[in-house]
Each structure stands twice: as structure tokens, then as C-alpha cells.
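Recap slide: 15-hydroxyprostaglandin dehydrogenase [NAD(+)], sequence and predicted structure.
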Amino acid sequence: MPAFEVKGKVFFITGAAEGLGRGLAEGALSKQGKVFFIDVNEGLGKSTLAELAEVHGPENVGFAVCDVTNRQRFEETFQEAVDRFGHVDVMVNNAGILGENRPQVLISINLLGPINGTEIAQGHMRKDKGGKGGRIINMSSVAGFYNVFNLPAYCATKQGIRSYTKSLSLVQDKVISDFQALCQSKAPVTGLESATGKPLADLMAHSLSTVPPTLEQVVDGFFKLLTLERMNGAHLMVTKEITTFGEVDFHPTGDSYPPLAK
Ligand SMILES: NC(=O)c1ccc[n+]([C@@H]2O[C@H](COP(=O)([O-])OP(=O)(O)OC[C@H]3O[C@@H](n4cnc5c(N)ncnc54)[C@H](O)[C@@H]3O)[C@@H](O)[C@H]2O)c1
């Protein structure tokens, strides 16, 4: 497969009013892609839309309020993006929360949300159904590889979505769209709070001894993953020290990372 050109591609990103999703949206826009994003936070979504439109042009960015657990609304907003930009090339299922004290909500957002998004995007992208193909990236976490004693339900969702993504990549011939998982170490956190009310950064400091990557490192890693020549089923792990692709055994000290790519 030829290397993927971001310029002119249409991105649909969930949970991009702030945090990593917003960073990915800015990255895509700055590489001359087009972005339609959804978020449950209407006020922040609108102000983010205004800021992105001012810098990158209102013709290149769109926003709609949507909860990824609401399948009907999710389908409507995806169609809104297709109507606006003609099609979607890259689906990024990024929206996710922490919430050990609300496992049903946590599982709905972190696991059913990306499954909803994957199915919707696949329906649009499948070449055997008249689509143009495309790439689907699901946001996992270091917790998608590594068991964290005080985040068991979160780990279950992130390991679950990684397994879901990998499994779908095995039938790539049939579905004719590509699947990838982005897994990153604790990144600069904006809005996430732990079930105990402690900031995520504090909580994670007790769970993982990794040094957090910067938002720029995660965004840079995302575009390395997206533009891999051979990407179906690939995953990418970003930590402060190194960015790795493929199936790696994660070790919290970073010692065991095979340096597959920079
Ligand atoms: N920040 C980290 O350290 C870190 C580390 C590993 C993985 N992740 C994963 O990266 C993703 C983004 O994390 P973040 O740190 O940017 O979070 P964030 O809280 O900064 O941003 C998440 C965004 O998703 C939105 N959102 C929440 N629930 C939603 C729903 N049901 N429907 C639509 N939008 C919804 C929020 O309003 C917010 O705008 C998540 O999947 C998270 O699990 C984050």
C-alpha cells in the first residue's frame, strides 16, 4: 500500500473538544486535512470549532454535539460529516473517560463508543459496498497492554478495544478498511479525574512509573501510525522515551521496548 497522504483527507474525530482529540484535529488541519469532530461538551465544542475555524478556515472544520454511546445520533452526525465533505477517509475513535465507580458508563463510552464508530465508519468505507476504503484508528492506552491495580475496569476497556481492533484487522480482506490502535502512556491530562477525585496524573503516578510523553509526541506518533506504508492491524505505543510500532511487550521502565521506529 502506498504511503498515506494526509493533505485533502477527511477526518472524523470523536471527543475532540479538548485533550488528545483536539491535538489530533489540529495536527490534521495543519497538514491540510479536513476535520469533522463530535463531542458531548457543546460549549467547549463550539469554542474549539471557532478557534480551529479561525486558524484553519471555516470551510475545513465542522462540529456536532454527540454522545458516542447514542448509536442513532452517532450515525446522524457521521452522515452530517459525509454530507459536508463528501466522504470520510479517517475515523478516529478517541473519546474516552476514566470512571472506576461507574463501570457501565465507562464500558459504554470506552468500548461500545469505538465499536459504534468502527461499525458506522466501516459501513461507509467498505469498497465491496461502494465505499472508497479508509482508515480507522481506535484509541487504546498503555492500560491496553499493562494491568493497573487501581484501574481494572479502565484496563478492561482499553485491552478490549485493542483486541477488537486487532481482531477486525484479521478480516481486512473482507471489510477493505484498515484498523489500527494508538496506545500511549500518560499524556498531559486536561479533563480526566479519577474515581477517587484525584487528578489522573496523581493516580497514574502510583500505577505506572513511565514518564509522560508530550501532547506533541502523541500527535506526532499518531501521524506516523496513520501514514505507515503497511498499517492494517498495526498499533503504536508512545512514551516519553520512544515510539514503537507492532506487537511489543510493554515494560514500565521502557527497557524492553524494541526500537522499531523513531
Ligand atoms: N490523557 C492520557 O494520559 C491518556 C493516556 C492513555 C489513553 N488516553 C485515552 O485518550 C483518549 C483521550 O483522552 P484525553 O486525555 O484527551 O481526555 P480528555 O478528557 O482531555 O478529552 C476527552 C474528550 O472526550 C469527550 N467525551 C467524553 N465522553 C464522551 C462521549 N460519551 N461522547 C463524546 N465525547 C465524549 C470529552 O467531552 C472531552 O472533550 C481517551 O480515550 C483516553 O482514554 C488518554
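Confidence is low (pLDDT under 50) at residues 185-209, 247-262.
The radius of gyration is 17 Å.
(End of recap.)
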